[in-house]
Amino acid sequence: MKEKENDVKLKFKQVSQRDTPNTKLISNCVKAFIVGGLICDVGQMFLNFYTRIGLDKQNAGTLVSISMIFLGALLTGIGIYDKIGDFAGAGSVVPITGFANSIVSPAMEFKKEGFVFGVGAKMFIIAGPVLVYGIGSSVIVGIIYYLVTL
């Protein structure tokens, strides 16, 4: 019985190794690095522009976040951000534009179900858990920091 079980495991391992597609790890990392870097360059260009027109660093940073979220949402809405994501993988997900994409994509997908039960209910289906855990963990860290510094 044990021998038959080991044969099945060995055969499964051989089949899965044979049929698993080879990943292009280096190529994927380079694409992610380049596209993520380009997205960050666009953000830096916005920051340079906003500070050049006379805004202080804090207000310029706020406007950069707003601009990048808008740009990510716009590119998602017209179907370009998905193509960028297919090419760059994680390079398009990590920056703030990926956050905008994760909100706009489900909203567009469920638009036909109406604004309340479609767009409103499904908008945060992907970004919601990230927000909940991000905010929750920051509150916990803040409480710990407060208690340690008493």
Automatic annotation (TrEMBL):
Alphabetized UniProt keyword annotations: Membrane, Transmembrane, Transmembrane helix
- Residue ranges spanning the membrane: these are 32-50, 62-81, 87-104, 124-148
InterPro entries with a match to the protein in the record: Spore_V_AC (IPR014203), SpoVA (IPR005562)
Q: What is this protein called?
A: Stage V sporulation protein AC
| Gene source species | Clostridium grantii DSM 8605
